[in-house]
Design a protein that fits this description.
The protein is an alpha/beta fold. The chain has one domain (3-281): Purple Acid Phosphatase, chain A, domain 2 (4-Layer Sandwich), CATH 3.60.21. It is 25% helix and 17% strand. The two termini are 35 Å apart.
Length: 289
């Protein structure tokens, strides 16, 4: 029995959809999907129907692309309402979401919970002296704009930053309650620490990558590992004794289709003999962008 993780399947791409169809069954294993599956709810449902049939247990946390609304006229749900629709789809298929009770890993000698969380971002992953309210213009000065500014709505919250703050408060309450019961593997789409955002070609994109409110969560809580995506830069490292695993697949240009999707499933448990290895040891991928 193994626990695998992957993120950023980006099923808007036909090549990625075909790779998902060809993923072999793992009937005894569990799978973490750390966001950015697809913005299309029918495609989202089809993807998790397939995964729920091929793995013993599946976990999901949302990425920004999952929450996009292309038609804001009222035909598509927006913000929290879109998120709730996705949670409902997952629950109908037995997929564990950030709104569900945390699951115990049955192969651990002591309690170890798989903990999907959803924290969004608040523009605080920026350069020194850059305020959150000027961060978007700071990024724009370097020629950067994120599609979230036009496609990721925060309804009914006044802003994505406000939604992020609410999610952090909610998540902290749940983590405090779980901390007395055992250790945790945290699963989030967005990196929890700014130092993890290594995007040398587009460094100011960091403002759309997380929140400083989560910087110390791996120390405040009994965390064994943190699983995340979003960056399309697979990595594995240890910080303060905690494993941090970036598990993105990405768009077709980011990965080698000849290897198949199975090659990009990251084993989380049992812990590999050398859990922290350089990204050069992962299947070769191109830089985010």
């Amino acid at each position: 029995m193994k626990l695998y993780a992957i993120s950023d399947l980006h099923l808007s791409s036909p090549e990625n959809r075909q790779a998902l169809k060809e993923l072999p069954p793992h009937p005894d294993d569990w799978l973490i999907v750390a966001g950015d599956v697809t913005r299309s709810i029918p495609r989202f449902r089809a993807a998790f129907t397939l995964l729920a049939n091929r793995f013993a247990r599946v976990f999901w946390t949302p990425g920004n692309h999952d929450l996009w609304t292309v038609d804001p006229s009222g035909c598509e749900a927006r913000g929290l309402f879109k998120y709730n629709e996705l949670v409902a789809v997952c629950r109908s298929l037995g997929v564990i979401t950030p709104e569900d009770p945390y699951e115990l890993w049955p192969e651990s000698d002591s309690p170890l919970f798989i903990v999907p969380i959803f924290t969004l971002y608040d523009y605080t992953f920026s350069g020194e002296g850059v305020r959150p309210d000027t961060a978007v213009s700071w990024a724009a000065a370097a020629g950067l704009e994120c599609a979230d500014e036009n496609l990721l709505y925060a309804d009914p919250f006044p802003s994505r930053s406000a939604w992020s703050a609410a999610r952090c408060r909610y998540t902290e309450r749940r983590l405090n309650k779980t901390a007395v019961l055992g250790h945790m593997i945290l699963v989030n789409h967005f990196p929890l620490r700014q130092e993890l955002v290594n995007l040398p070609r587009i460094p100011r994109f960091s403002i759309w990558c997380g929140t400083q409110q989560t910087e110390d969560w791996h120390r405040r809580f009994p965390v064994t590992a943190v699983i995340y995506g979003h960056l399309h830069t697979p990595d594995s490292r240890v910080i303060d004794g905690v494993r941090f695993e970036e598990v993105s697949l990405g768009y077709p240009r980011h990965w080698d289709q000849a290897l198949g999707l199975n090659a990009y499933l990251r084993q989380i448990l049992p812990t590999p003999a050398d859990p922290a290895f350089h990204s050069s040891q992962l299947p070769q991928m191109q830089q985010f962008g």
